[in-house]
Specification:
131 residues; mainly alpha; 5 helices
């Protein structure tokens, strides 16, 4: 699950770097015609690069502590996004939707970490699957 989450995060990040509207539009950072102005692109591109980098790191990290650490960074980034979005985006509904979305991605990371720990613990105790 962590590898799939990393792949999705990386792909979305790369796409949003090249097309910042993919991130700016749902956040309400566009003009009345739906266009992304250069200032909005400047705001969302670093987030997109961060997503691409952490997603790639989740794909490349070896199992164990390295993968758990980069996933924790990913989770912290998503929680930070939720805090930022809930405080700073235009419109109450948009703030709520963006924060819930970011927390959903964080929850996927937590679920993936929890699942990978159970699998690792099962192997370390000699269990190789369901009995």
């Amino acid at each position: 699950m962590l590898r799939a989450l990393g792949a999705a995060t990386c792909a979305y990040g790369v796409a949003a770097v090249y097309r910042p509207g993919l991130l700016a539009r749902p956040l309400g950072l566009v003009d009345p015609h739906g266009r992304v102005d250069p200032r909005s692109a400047l705001v969302v591109r670093p987030m997109a690069w961060r997503d691409a980098a952490t997603g790639l790191a989740m794909l490349a990290a070896p199992e164990g502590k390295a993968l758990a650490t980069v996933t924790a960074v990913r989770i912290a980034s998503d929680v930070g996004d939720a805090v930022l979005f809930s405080a700073a985006l235009p419109g109450r509904f948009r703030r709520a939707v963006a924060a819930v979305s970011a927390l959903g991605w964080a929850a996927l990371g937590v679920a993936g970490l929890t699942g990978s720990r159970r699998t690792t613990e099962g192997r370390s105790h000699g269990r190789h699957g369901p009995r």
